[in-house]
Amino acid sequence: MPAQAFRHFINGEWVSSARTFENRNPADNSVIGLVHEAGQAEVDAAVAAARAALKGPWGTMTVAQRTALLHKVAEGIERRHAEFVAAEVADTGKPAHLAGHLDIPRGAANFKVFADLIRNVPTESFVMDTPDGGKAVNYAVRSPRGVIGVVCPWNLPLLLMTWKVGPALACGNTVVVKPSEETPATATLLGEVMTEAGVPPGVYNVVHGFGADSAGAFLTSHPDVDGVTFTGETGTGEVIMKAAAKGIRPVSLELGGKNAGIVFADADLEKAVKGLGRAVFENSGQVCLGTERIYVQRPLFERFVEAFKAHAASIVVGDPNAHGTTMGPLISLSHREKVLSYARQAVDDGATVVCGGGIPQVPAHLAEGAWFEPTIWTGLPETSAVIREEIFGPCCHIAPFDTEEEAVALANDTPYGLAASVWTRDLQVAHRLGSALDVGICWINAWFLRDLRTAFGGAKQSGIGREGGVHSLEFYTELRNVCVRL
């Protein structure tokens, strides 16, 4: 694959398209390369290749053979760690240390975890009495669902793509991946790793493009795709769900959030500030599990705001490849304009700007990048769009509360239900909120601690289905009951 040209990876080959678009580095808005845009023909070819691979060597491999290949894929990512980091940093603008310690290692781990899981996952069996006094045994058999369409976000490109591709392939499916148009690099690079590892052609395919009237729409509506998995905005999830409804094809959706952090007066202030500092500002606030609303019990409120302001001031915004940088740019200039519009809305709605809210000063060579300051607001009404809508930037609103019941009501007053965190020394309070909050995951005195064996997904408008451990098998396999009369 020529450098700086992002082509489709279909049936083990690099495929060009007539139409291309630019891939830009968000740190300085420079052009990284040209991305080939898939039309209906390229998507048809990718789906056909995936279908053929199901009937070829991939479909006849034993679990041991298949999972051995996936371990080789993981080893390939680890061996080319520096290349993956460089590609992810150029595409996203995230600090190199973050990509190197989180995104890329998790990309490899996703293959290992699910390869090991599928070797040992049990299925149920039951012995029953028959009406005539005999016996029968029922047992379950898991089969691959088939061709899976994987539509990926731009915030954690390799991590979240492999979070889907890993279990899909471990279960014996084949995939057609549509990376975000903002971040084509690591999905493309993974095609090279798949070939090096000996994964048969057609098992892993990549088509580049946009959503509507492009690769995304062609893939999610394709009649020969057996299931679609997507991480991204709730609005896009609704579109994908409608497309998949034709043919009654299942979907797995991890969607938006407006996550709350709740800090009680007895909380360890230093730990709460540090943990929520990550939850608000890590990856420039572009994390689906990130926190944009913080509620602090009134006796601690003023101290928390001052401490959180100091934490924001300690963040080093700058060159993603520079040592010491702790926050990079937003993903694009258009996304920065969206975040800036919420900053203006906050002021219009009467917010107190504790810090930030604008474009920071950066070195001249980065001046054209999509930069935004770490931002904290207080004083907004709960009806403000800044409180109600997902912003996806390094910003949050902090508000006081008095009682446990009030905190729960405030946190749950959202159409979303992805995640929450609770900060308290009182384990009874912690357990009560763990049950009362309408979310898919609730952390107590922590944020972003993830055991990949546990269920992950959102409540309400934050998604459908669960991923992680055996829960991923519910989407990526078909469960068949076999009843044998004895």
From TrEMBL:
- Keyword terms of this UniProt record: NAD, Oxidoreductase
- Catalytic residues, chain numbering: 254
Q: What is its EC number?
A: 1.2.1.85
Q: Which molecular function terms from Gene Ontology are attached?
A: aldehyde dehydrogenase [NAD(P)+] activity
Domain Aldehyde dehydrogenase spans what residues?
14-482
Pfam families named in the record: Aldedh
| Family membership noted in the UniProt record | Belongs to the aldehyde dehydrogenase family.
Query: What NCBIfam families does this protein's entry cite?
Result: OH_muco_semi_DH (TIGR03216)
Give the matching PANTHER family: 2-AMINOMUCONIC SEMIALDEHYDE DEHYDROGENASE
Q: What is this protein called?
A: 2-hydroxymuconic semialdehyde dehydrogenase
Q: Which organism is it from?
A: Pseudomonas putida
Q: What is the lineage of its organism?
A: Bacteria, Pseudomonadati, Pseudomonadota, Gammaproteobacteria, Pseudomonadales
